[in-house]
Write a structure and sequence with these properties.
By secondary structure, the chain is an alpha+beta fold. It has two domains: about 50-95 and about 130-155 and about 250-355, Ribosomal Protein S5, domain 2 (2-Layer Sandwich), CATH 3.30.230.10; about 160-245, Roll (Pdz3 Domain). Helices cover about 30% and strands about 25% of the residues. The chain has a six-stranded mixed beta sheet with strand order 6-1-5-16-19-20. The longest helix is centred in the N-terminal third of the chain and has 30 residues, at about 10-40. Keywords: Membrane, Transmembrane, Transmembrane helix. InterPro entries: Lon_proteolytic, PDZ, PDZ_sf, Ribosomal_Su5_D2-typ_SF, Ribsml_uS5_D2-typ_fold_subgr. This is PDZ domain-containing protein.
């Protein structure tokens, strides 16, 4: 008895699978195209990444393309330096109207050296690109002046350091009492020689009673009273202030196309190194960041994670960070790098000098431990 099988259904099944496969591949292709098209669309983010590194003891190109010293002190005796004192910058990828696409953002999210930020966090609404650039340039100019002042104070020079009122907020307690051009001499009898000292004095006074403020107005000393008010948990006078200096030494700082105040501490260290015998770093590569005021107080900055990686790319083993940025440092320190937490120029100088002498005691505070 012969047995026969009916294969008439096989071609139909193969044809069905073939159609399903074609449909599946078509769906994958369409989804891939959609994903690519979506990925190329502009995102509402910008990307912060490590920017150029500048040695304050070295040279940089100016706007004309010529190499010039970052620090020049033409009329004073200066001394040979060694090693590097690197200031660090952050580059921003994207601007309003020209933001990174989603593929670039996704790539940056997976890169520990870069940070994705909402565009409004970097470019506040209502502030034009031109205004923002002008503000950053003005902040850099002010920071350089503060760095010169801090370095000269550190070295024992005496010169006028005037906290000058340049504006009053509408409705502030100082309206009608203080005027533009007034120089704040002291608050409650405590001398004021920097913006930081004024802010500290106002905070310590509080908002419960009038503060006694000695001012110099058109060359005449007088004392006025202003009661600070609470703004976001901080006592303030409601005035805008700016520093005015009369330097006894001509110091020229050269750094084009870099904005913001975060180079202050490293510029101040570079000036101190130039004006003191012996190479402060002893040949070491030291990087750092931080604002500074004329009293030498080191303040917080933005983008410290990117600056840590910028320092790593410049082969720096030592990093000086503002103590107030330590919470952002933990967990983001490149291998082999030691991060010191600093609060003053004097402390930063002592650390660098000990590094240069090879006598680091280990007693300096650090913020790189988890």
């Amino acid at each position: 008895m012969a047995l026969f099988t009916d294969d008439s259904s096989a071609p139909a099944e193969r044809g069905g699978r073939s159609r399903r496969e074609r449909i599946g591949w078509a769906a994958v292709t369409v989804a891939t195209v959609i994903a690519i098209v979506f990925g190329l669309l502009p995102s509402p983010y910008v990307i912060e990444q490590p920017g150029p590194v500048y040695d304050t003891l070295g040279v940089a190109e100016n706007a004309d393309g010529d190499e010039v010293p970052l620090i020049a002190i033409p009329d004073e005796t200066t001394y040979p330096t060694e090693g590097e004192l690197n200031l660090l910058t952050v580059s921003v990828v994207g601007r309003p109207g020209n933001t990174p696409n989603w593929l670039e953002v996704l790539w940056a999210w997976g890169d520990g050296t870069r940070t994705v930020m909402p565009i409004e966090a970097v470019f506040p609404p209502g502030v034009s690109n031109e205004d923002r650039d002008a503000q950053n340039e003005a902040a850099m100019v002010d920071s350089q002046q503060d760095a010169i002042a801090a370095a000269l104070v550190e070295l024992g020079y005496e010169f006028p350091r005037e906290v000058t009122i340049v504006g009053l907020l509408e409705g502030s307690p100082a309206e009608g009492v203080l005027e533009e051009g007034d120089v704040v001499v002291s608050l409650d009898g405590t001398p004021v020689n920097s913006i930081g000292e004024l802010q500290t004095a106002v905070r310590e006074h509080g908002t419960d009673a009038p503060a006694s403020i000695e001012i110099d107005r058109d060359g005449e000393r007088e004392t006025v009273e202003v009661t600070p008010v609470d703004r976001d948990g901080t006592a303030v006078l409601g005035v805008g202030v700016r520093m005015h200096y009369e330097f006894p030494v001509d110091v020229e700082l050269q750094l084009d196309d870099v904005g913001g105040p975060s180079a202050g501490m490293m510029f101040a260290l570079g000036i101190v190194d130039e004006l003191t015998p012996g190479a402060m770093t002893g040949g070491e590569i030291v990087a750092g960041t931080g604002t500074i005021d004329s009293a030498g107080a080191v303040g917080p900055i933005g983008g410290i994670r990117q600056k840590l990686w910028g320092a790593d790319g410049a082969d720096a083993d030592w990093f000086l960070a503002p103590e107030s940025n330590c919470d952002e440092v933990v967990g983001n320190v490149p291998d082999g790098m030691t991060v010191f937490a600093v609060t003053t120029l004097d402390q930063a100088r002592a650390i660098v000098e000990d590094l240069g002498d090879g006598e680091l005691t280990g007693s300096y505070p650090s913020c790189d431990a988890p």
